Amino acid sequence: MVIEQAAPSDLLAALTLLDPTRIMEHTQQLCAPAFAGRRVGTQGHAEATDFLVEQWKALEWETTTQAFPLSAPVFEQAAPLLLEQVTSEGEVLHTFVQRTEYCEHPRSAFQPEIVAGRVVAFSEEGASSRYRGAWVALDAVPQGAAFTTLADELALQGAIGLLTPLYITADGYLVKRIIAHAPIALPVLSVRVDLHAQLVGTRIRARVPVFAHQTQGYNVLAHRPGTDTLLANAPLILGAHYDGVGDDVGGPRLPGATDNAAAVAVLLELARIITQARLQFRRPLLFVAFDAEEVGTQGSSVLAAQLKTQGSAPLMLNLDGAACLNDAVWVEPGSQTEPLLQALDHAGRWLDIPLIVGNIASDQRQFTQAGFPAVGLSVGAAQLHTPGDTIERVQPEALRIAATLLLATLWQLAA
């Protein structure tokens, strides 16, 4: 690691305390089966919340949770999905694999029982009687109210379900979607586009026990006071969302290692270094593990609104993706972020870490919308919202870069 001589000696001393192995261990813990992918509203998510509270309290940071009702529901499964191709006598010809061959559709009706029927291609000119007792394969999915209307019409004509086409990612997965929308009148499954076309004219049976779940989120806030009373109302916020899309019930695990367990583990390591080195900052520090980022950045929206109501004047850095090495660290600046960008630029020069402007759709945008200076950062992530986002994708060098860049930036903004 090449470090410019301009870097303060006490910062360099603090950087020697950095332990990428510990960051990796915390990342692995957040990806554990007990946390079940950390989808908001689940027991695994609640255990992840408790884990983070315990970690920060053990580091002697003042730690609280901020509960809030979700404004948008989460798409849940009551039991495993099922899709099988069968003969007219019920003999199973093929059992489809969830997440690589088919998956949920976020507007499906709740269908906990197995229903069987032939697959018929939808046609606007077809006789309505052809849909009775059939699964209807749509070439394209209408948007909004048009989908609701079509499903109502097909249900009246006796259809028992819908199949929609969905393209796989480059890694061979169907991306998981967890923002629930208003359910339509029929159960719906999304099928890999090539298999979707092949199902027409065959017979299937399926179970779609999915529903919209209204739940509550919990931001985890770890606070460390500053030494300058004039800055007491102007904290430096370092955030990273800890929620994920969650494991498939009865199907593959989706650990969410790069999105965003690794970034939260970086925050834990920075808190440990600050405690161990007994670092003092003039500006208060507020480390936040944001919740409900995967359902519309709701946790950051709640905190930003609260701080605005309180008349606070925070600076905000948000890390979404700290696990995979790109050519440079992505930076998304908001408005009035010159002090943040200057600090990041100096830190990058000190540590020989290149920075480029990038698009980071994450929690910092809620702070920007609230009128606060906020910048998003991403070292890199991989295979988001799929079973491929595992601990094996996390690179220790990426963790080191994220942690050192942030500590050097915090040093300039708060020390």
Automatic annotation (TrEMBL):
It comes from the Bacteria. InterPro entries: M28_fam, Peptidase_M28. It holds the Pfam family Peptidase_M28. Residues 219-408 form the Peptidase M28 domain. SUPFAM superfamilies: Zn-dependent exopeptidases. This is Peptidase M28 domain-containing protein. It comes from Ktedonobacter robiniae.
